[in-house]
Amino acid sequence: MTFWKLAAKSPIMAEEMNTKASTKEVVLPSPGGPFAVSLNELAEAIHMAPVWLHAGWIDVIWRFRRTRIGAFWHTLSLAAFVVVMGVIWGSILHQDPYQYFRYVTASMIVWGLIASFITEGAGIMVAGQSTALSMRFPFIAFAFAHVWRSLLMFCHQFVFYIVVMVGTWYSPGWAVFYAIPGLLLIMMNGVWMSLFIGMMCLRVRDLIPATASAMQIAIFVTPVFWPKDMLGPNLAFAADFNPLYHLVRIMRDPLLGIVPPLVSWLWVLATLVVGSTITLWVYGKQRDRMPYWY
Fold first, then answer.
1. Taking Cα atoms as reference points, which of 208, 195, 209 lies closest to residue 286?
2. 21 lies in a domain?
3. Residues 51-60: pLDDT tens digits?
4. How far apart are CA 123 and CA 143, in angstroms?
5. Residue 112 to residue 219: CA distance in whole angstroms
6. Of 9, 35, 118, 151, which shows the fewest CB atoms inside 10 Å?
7. Which domain covers residue 120, as residue numbers?
């Protein structure tokens, strides 16, 4: 059961649907150009924050119902992965074990958040079919709910980061506060990423498994397990043209006590502006066609 089916049973969603049903609303094509349509739906989705906040919260609870430690199963999975990677890859790459454990832990926590926007975001539109076909609903709210749910899972995994920092007797210092704006920028990028990939996968369902395969490759071509310097002076520049690397870096570096360079912030801001502009234009152009893609 998806969280949007659960949300449909919530008092807030029920009231919305009953109101629309009682007034027998006539659904007309969205007025205005692509950006006007998108901005109107964006405002409507923000207004419906209680709905998608409740839906995302319930989904986490429902997914781990009747388990003893709940969402912390994801934390244990991450811990097992980091321990194995730290021992094996640390030996292969001849890295200091304590430093490498911290590096992989921070990298995987941040990468898991970013990857969830894309891999799990691929199915958010498909999962919201019952809601999207029962009423005129802002599809952008699906992306908001997904980003909120991913943030909740990230908070559970962040506990393991604290354990690693304490266990290795390391303090990131004042630089850790740069992680706050880094997290905000990652979440803002996560909204357009989830919305864009969700629309594409709703139209072409073969993109759902293709996206998962692409992200499995992306984790190895992005400096997540290995530092960028290992590419050498002739290839290190290639990582600088990878937007995912800069998304990881603006939050991973502060967690390791390093101030992210200005170029990474500029890359992330440019990614946000360009990605949001393209997504809003595509969304506005295709908004009225999307219910027919189910």
1. 195
2. no
3. 989 988 888 8
4. 10
5. 10
6. 9
7. 32-293
